[in-house]
Amino acid sequence: MSDFELNRRGLIGAGLIGATMVGLAACDKATLAPGVSKADFAGAIKAMRGVVGDEWVFGDPEAVTPWKKNYIPDPEGRHVPVGAVAPKTVEEVQEIVRIANKYRQPIWPVSTGKNMGYGMATPATPGQIVLDLKRMNRILDVDPELGTALVEPGVTYQQLKDYLEENNIPLWIDVPTVGPIASPVGNTLERGVGYTPYGEHFTFQCGMEVVLPDGQVMRTGMGSIKGTTAWQAFKWGYGPYVDGLFTQSNFGIVTKMGMWLMPKPPVYKPFMIRHDDMADVPKIIEAMRPLRVSSLVANCNLMMSASYQLAMFKRRNEIVPDGRPLDDASVKKAAKANGLGMWNTYFALYGTEQTVAAIEPIIRAQLTASGGEVMTAAEMEGNPWFHHHATLMQGGLNLDEIGLLRWRGAGGGLAWFAPVAAAKGKEAEAQTKLARGILDKHGFDYTAAYAIGWRDLHHIIALLYDKSDREQEKKADACYRELVSTFGENGWASYRTGVNSMALVAEQYGQVNRDFNKLLKNAIDPNGVIAPGKSGIV
Amino acid sequence: MRRSLSRLLAAAAVLMGGSAAQAGQKLGDYLPQRAPEVVYAKVCGYCHGRNIGPILLGRKLPVDMITLVARQGRNGMPAFRPTEVTPAEMAALAKWISTAAPRAEEKGK
């Protein structure tokens, strides 16, 4: 216990007394946004207190500490908010937006701020006040017949699942890997994925309410029709489809979001396919693609490397001594001892007894021919990795992946690098080779997975490092930038990235695309107060 | 008879301090204040006691330390803000963890 440093002046105050209302003297040390004076900042903080109450405005560096935590490399300390404000209603959000415009004070909206490995609640550029929407946590509607829900940004997957279970509504949720504390709104707006057939979250989103940068409230899809009953039933509305403009962007603040929920199927059967060699990547992708394109396998698969799997529940020095590279032979030995292959591909069948029984032999034949061992609960009962994935693929909740943060030292460093590829074996093989080369050069491990979508791959690479080691943090930062740039040179770019690399990833998508985003930004948010730097849009 | 029994049980729940703290969330309502056991089960207990985070229960950890670490995060642990675990919930939670008995089913160090 002696290793805990109790800073009683700081967080204890925030925790026990509630939100602090310390004066503005401490902001002398904080970096304010370009063009914002201390007087502007003080004026904005004061006005925001008038809207949400003193206890929900956090205006000095110590009180803001709970919003500063992140896992990403930030050697220059750029991703540090100067304040936080937590409204409870859409009207309060509108008022805060007006205040932000008046004082030119940028605000960085987050839902629950649990965007793990992408920056959590921290902003892309210095000087922003986090607009923390977690207190807006109402589940506004659930329609058991249509299988739809309407929720506020602060609703967590845990809340939604609890509501469905407590009310015996036979609908599933679809979760990312940190479901209990993350929100459907936040994850969907980041275009995150889950692992049931409803795993492509933005595809299953339907209708939004958005506070625009001028303070007006707009409803998308059918939501602006008086008396509509189809807001959560029909996605497209009329005219240009605009919902996408509010994902991975800074064009508005989403205060309500509709989503579709999958009816619980009569039969759910999870599978794991083990392949024994790192070089099996193309075989697996080629075998899985026709199953996914045809939807015989309907959920988003995870094809997990042994090193990623081991990193969830083991520490690196249990596999190789500290300071030694993570060689394939050592990983293979540890994988085998834990019932894992070098690649472990998880998917499930959903349906009736008849449909599952009809599809299973087709899948078994295809995957066995690829050299894989087909495993089910009958063979994998009690295996924690199988249990983890079997839970996720039915929308179950766990936080097992937080174990990744202990893989390398105690400092808790993680940055996801997530380049996209077409679902072709050769592409995946080339991406794996390129990633391993760059990671090896910088002294990091290839702890990676492929999420196999309908026709695409999200190559999800966990860059794991010890954030308490400043030198390692700098190396992780350099490694991440080289990954983004070199993949870009080879025609691959990320589907999503952390606040540490938003401008760099935007560069990969080209000048015309960036100029178009800038044109929209200037038209919609001329004062640039909503989340400057989000997705590289300033 | 059945109705009076359910009334009795409801009254007992109120007397045990369970009313608002134990109730589930209703459509259109904000999340009611959660009892410490509920916060532990729905947040902390996914890692602590499951071989991800260190064991907390039965260790008589100081309330101040629990609050500090929960609010700022430590190492791989995320920070839990007053918007996620309210100040009232955190005060009750830290006290409850500090005095809770160990659980045999929990795993970890």
Number of helices of chain A: 16
How much helical structure, as a percent, in the residues of chain B? Answer: 40-55%
Number of domains of chain A: 4
Q: Care to count the β-strands of chain A?
A: 19
Tell me what portion of residues of chain A adopts beta-strand conformation: 15-25%
Number of distinct beta strands of chain B: 0
| Main sheet attributes: strand count, strand direction, barrel closure of chain B | none
- SS content category of chain A: alpha+beta
Gross morphology of chain B is globular
How would you describe this protein?
- The complex is a heterodimer of chains A (538) and B (109).
- Chain A contains 16 helices and 19 strands.
- Chain A is of the alpha+beta class.
- Chain A has four domains: 122 residues, Uridine Diphospho-n-acetylenolpyruvylglucosamine Reductase, domain 2; 125 residues, Uridine Diphospho-n-acetylenolpyruvylglucosamine Reductase, domain 3; 233 residues, FAD-linked oxidases, C-terminal domain (Vanillyl-alcohol Oxidase, Chain A, domain 3, 3-Layer(aba) Sandwich); 34 residues.
- In chain A, strands 12, 13, 14, 15, 16, 17, 18 and 19 form an eight-stranded antiparallel sheet that branches.
- The longest helix of chain A is centred in the C-terminal third of the chain and has 20 residues.
- The N terminus of chain A is likely disordered.
- Helices cover 44% and strands 0% of the residues of chain B.
- Chain B contains five helices and no strands.
- In chain B, helix 3 packs across helix 5 and helix 4 packs across helix 5.
- At the A-B interface, helix 1, helix 3, strand 5 and helix 5 of A face helix 4 and helix 5 of B.
Structure described in brief:
The complex is a heterodimer of chains A (538) and B (109). Chain A is an alpha+beta fold and 538 residues long. Helices cover 33% and strands 18% of the residues of chain A.
Give the SSE layout:
The complex is a heterodimer of chains A (538) and B (109).
Chain A (H helix, E strand, L loop, with lengths): L10 H6 L21 H15 L4 E2 L6 H4 L14 E3 L4 H14 L3 E4 L18 E4 L6 E5 L4 E4 L5 H10 L4 E2 L11 H6 L15 E7 L5 E3 L33 E8 L1 E2 L3 E9 L5 H13 L7 E5 H8 L14 H10 L5 E9 L1 H17 L3 E4 H4 L3 H9 L20 E5 L2 E3 L2 H18 L4 E6 L3 E10 L4 H20 L12 H7 L2 H14 L14
Parallel strand pairs in A: 2-4, 3-4
Antiparallel strand pairs in A: 1-2, 5-6, 6-10, 7-11, 8-9, 8-10, 12-14, 12-15, 13-14, 13-18, 16-19, 17-19, 18-19
Helix pairs in contact in A: 2-4, 7-10, 7-13, 8-9, 13-14
Chain B lengths: L1 H14 L3 H4 L13 H7 L20 H10 L14 H13 L10
Helix pairs in contact in B: 3-5, 4-5
